[in-house]
Design brief:
Blueprint: H1 3-8, H2 12-21, H3 33-37, H4 48-57, H5 60-67, H6 71-74, H7 80-84, H8 91-104, H9 113-129, H10 134-144, H11 154-160, H12 174-187
Helix pairs in contact: 9-10, 9-12
Bound molecules: iron/sulfur cluster (SF4) (2 copies).
Amino acid sequence: MSSEAHQSVLSGLAGEVLEHTGVKANSCYQCGKCSAGCPLSGEMEYPPSYVMRILQTEDAELEEKILRSFTIWVCLTCEMCYSRCPMSIDIPKMMDFLREKSIREGKANPRAKKIIAFHKSFLDSIRTTGRLYEVGLLVDYKARTMTLMQDMVLAPKMLSRGKLNIFPELIKERSKVSKIFSRSTKKNK
Ligand code: SF4
Ligand code: SF4
């Protein structure tokens, strides 16, 4: 069987990953370079090469563990694994897809609550203003995580030094940004 034909028969989570990201789990030959270089592998239940191995097994029970893991949320998308991989496997892109799927299916790891809150606040800031509005992001994040008063003593200092803008800077064509968001939401449904 040719290599391409072999890839096309991937099923389960590996098949979905292939369809949505182009990442072929079967291309991984378990050299471990990604896990060795990953700055966060010590915090992960399954370092990147383990995730690849689990996808190769096409075992539904193990795949479920990946979707419920903290691993996919700890990934920083730093691309160290990608740059070290002799097969150019785009692990960060795959992790992104796994995060989206995990949230969509209500399987996000409870330990990732604050990370998810930050993601949502960040995206809301971009969606509303067209760029990052730090004060809005901070207030939104703190409200979501019930930590409104934490680090508040730093705010006056940062404001007086011009490190934070009280008012957001709005870009002109915000409707284009909204369209990108709605296109991406439809695509991921
Ligand atoms: S992109 Fe994620 S998995 Fe890859 S090295 Fe960075 S933190 Fe680790
Ligand atoms: S570096 Fe690439 S080939 Fe090696 S284990 Fe990681 S994903 Fe697989």
